[in-house]
Specification:
By secondary structure, this protein is of the alpha+beta class. The chain has one domain: Gcn5-related N-acetyltransferase (GNAT) (Aminopeptidase, 3-Layer(aba) Sandwich), CATH 3.40.630. It has eight helices and seven strands. Strands 1-2-3-4-5-7-6 form a seven-stranded mixed β-sheet, with helices on both faces. Strand 4, helix 7 and strand 5 form a beta-alpha-beta unit. Helix 2 runs parallel beside helix 4. The mean pLDDT is 91. GO terms for molecular function: acyltransferase activity, transferring groups other than amino-acyl groups. Pfam families: Acetyltransf_7. This is N-acetyltransferase domain-containing protein.
C-alpha cells in the first residue's frame, strides 16, 4: 500500500529524477533539456524546501510520485540563486553569463533559455513576473506547488491525498494561501483542483489582454488558480 512521507536526500534523489523524466513533456525529454529542467522543476525544491517536499512511496519505500512546494515563493526565489544555483555543477553543461547584469540580450534557443532561468532568473520561472495590481500570486496566495506521479499510480486518489497533505504542510509553514498555474486547455486539471477547493484567481493578470480574470494572454494562456489556507485571507 503506497504512503506519503517527507523527501529524504540524498537517498531519494535518483527516484525523484526518474519521476520527473518519466512524467515530463516531450520538449523536456532530450538532453541537455532533461537535466536542466530536472533542476528547475524538481531538485531545487527538494534541496531548499524539504519540509514541503513530499513523496508518494511504494511498499519498498521507493518514491513513485512527488509533490514539491514552498510556503513563500518570494523567499524561495531569493534563496534559489544564493543557496542552490550558486553551488550547482551540471557536468558538461556550461554555466551561462548573467545576461541582464552584463547588458546582453537574453537567449532565444530553448536550452539556453532554461539555463538562464536556472542560474539567473528563477523569479520568472516562479511567476513573480506575472503583473497584477493586487499581487495575487506572491502576496495573498504566496505558496505554490506542483505534483507528478508515475503512470502506474495515477487515477487512484493519490493526487488528491498528496494535495491535501501539501496544503497542511504549507499552512504549517506559515502560508495563508496557495496558487498554481495550469495550461489553459487543461480542463481536466482545472476540474480536479476545483474539487480540491481551488478557484480561478479573481484578478486581471495581463492588463486585460486575455479578456478574462485569472488568465494570461495567448492561444493557450496559463490559468492561475488559488486556494485560501486560513480563514479571512
Amino acid at each position: 500500500m503506497p504512503s506519503i512521507r517527507p523527501v529524504s536526500l540524498p537517498t531519494d534523489h535518483a527516484a525523484l529524477d526518474h519521476i520527473f523524466r518519466t512524467t515530463s513533456g516531450p520538449s523536456f525529454k532530450p538532453e541537455p533539456a532533461a537535466t536542466i529542467s530536472s533542476h528547475l522543476f524538481c531538485h531545487a525544491y527538494a534541496a531548499l524546501e524539504p519540509r514541503t517536499s513530499l513523496v508518494l512511496v511504494d511498499s519498498s519505500n521507493t518514491p513513485v510520485g512527488y509533490i514539491l512546494g514552498t510556503p513563500d515563493t518570494r523567499a524561495f526565489a531569493s534563496r534559489w540563486k544564493r543557496e542552490y544555483a550558486a553551488g550547482l555543477d551540471l557536468a558538461g553543461i556550461a554555466r551561462p553569463p548573467d545576461y541582464a547584469a552584463q547588458g546582453l540580450p537574453r537567449p532565444a534557443d530553448f536550452e539556453s533559455s532554461l539555463l538562464d532561468l536556472l542560474f539567473n532568473s528563477p523569479e520568472e520561472l516562479l511567476n513573480l513576473h506575472v503583473p497584477s495590481r493586487e499581487e495575487p500570486l506572491a502576496g495573498t496566495w504566496g505558496a505554490h506547488f506542483h505534483v507528478d506521479i508515475l503512470p502506474a499510480y495515477q487515477r487512484q486518489g493519490w493526487g488528491a491525498a498528496m494535495v491535501e497533505e501539501m496544503c497542511g504542510a504549507l499552512r504549517a509553514g506559515g502560508a495563508r494561501g496557495v496558487h498554481l498555474g495550469l495550461e489553459g486547455r487543461n480542463e481536466g486539471a482545472a476540474r480536479f483542483y476545483a474539487r480540491m477547493g481551488f478557484r480561478r484567481a479573481e484578478v486581471v493578470l495581463d492588463g486585460g489582454a486575455s479578456g478574462e480574470v485569472g488568465r494570461m494572454a495567448g492561444e493557450n494562456g496559463t490559468v492561475f488558480m488559488v486556494k485560501d489556507l486560513v480563514e479571512g485571507v
